[in-house]
Amino acid sequence: MTAWPVVLRGVTETVVTTRGPNGRWNVAALGVHAPPRSGGAEEGNGREGPAGRASANTDANGASDGVESRASARTWGRTRTRGNFHREGEGYVQFTPDPVVFVRAACSVHEVDDPILPSADAWARVDVESLEAGVDGGTEWEEWAVTPVESRVVAERPFTANRGYYAVVEATVAASRLDVPGYETDALRERLDYFAGVCETCGGEREREAFALLDELTGWRE
Length: 222
What we know:
CATH architecture of the largest domain: Roll
Domain DUF447: 71-153, 162-215
Distance between the termini: 49 Å
Radius of gyration: 17 Å
Number of strands: 7
Protein name: DUF447 family protein
Structural class: alpha+beta
InterPro entries: DUF447_C, DUF447_N, Split_barrel_FMN-bd
Shape: globular
Mean pLDDT: 86
Order of helices and strands: EEEHEHEEEHHH
Region (Disordered): 31-83
């Protein structure tokens, strides 16, 4: 069994590429829920960065030491990712430290010619299987089993925690709910204002560029 190229814990925010009917690869954000371990622990242990290898759990061939590698993810709405999952049954889950790439994936229709993004520190080609579907607050959702069949670590870097980056990620979640029934627009705009302040104070140039792109794509300041 192929192991994930990084440690997964809780919900790991990723970028996924899926092949569309036009042959190009759609880029979207996807939250991946860590697979369970016996005893309730999540896959991987020890220190890890954005592309930290789960070395304590894998052998020389990349196989896990009895750890279930099947994670899960949920798509919301009739998105391109959902349609491509049904049609192709696979995709590439990628781990990128670039906040601009994440914003473009989360808040726009973005297609590329190659499935592996240049900004990916690590990636996994995954098989997907629909588990269940339903409706929540008027929005359709579908739960998927996500199983790695091939993976690679491209770049290993020391772990750094930048509040600006995480503010960008949280802001994309709030922005994606602006037009969704069941969420209050004023409250979401207040959250976005807060995250914008965090990004301005704690983020670097790339994080500020990402927030400017978020504003351009969603118009949340209007």
